[in-house]
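Entry 14. Ran structure prediction on the chain below.
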Amino acid sequence: MIVALLNQKGGVGKTTLALHLAGEWARRGQRVTVIDADPQGSALDWSQQRARESLPRLFGVIGLARDTLHREAPELARNVHHIVIDGPPRVAGLMRSALLAADIILIPVQPSPFDGWGSAEMLALLSEARVYRPQLVARFVLNRCGARTIIARETALTLADHDPPLLTSKVGQRVAFADAAQSGRLVWEAHATIAAREITALASEVGRLAR
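Output, structure tokens:
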């Protein structure tokens, strides 16, 4: 399964979700590779920090920020259970390549009307990709949200009737994600129980989409 975290709007948490999905699947005994397709290289930075902290390797992280991704990712997928692509912001060629490579597209959004408006270009690229990949599965993921806030509820209601639809699983705005990332860790390694449960639920729901 190749899962791509994509949104042309920056700051929505693509890297955090990509690394945590990979970590959750690795924790379940599956072989996973993260492709850092963002020229900023945040996932690679996280991996290097993990090595400096002498933490065990959970999954591979490779840099592949080029528009041949759709040809290279399927080859890499032959040797693992899952490929997770951490996509770029506002690089249309790379975005198109990731869309053509993936089986499942996850579009992280924060509970804000600006994120909804900022996803319009992303959805146009998704529609374009579905001409060539009509079986392509896509979902919004509500990330960095306060579950009980009015704006989170309103965003969820807005996306409920949207295409693509919204995943049931949501990930909260938790300082545990930033604290763990600074040392190359994941939230379950930092004993952030609530955040870890949210990631477990998200990974399980995404896994069911592939069946």
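The chain is about 45% helix and 20% strand. Will compare against last week's run tomorrow.
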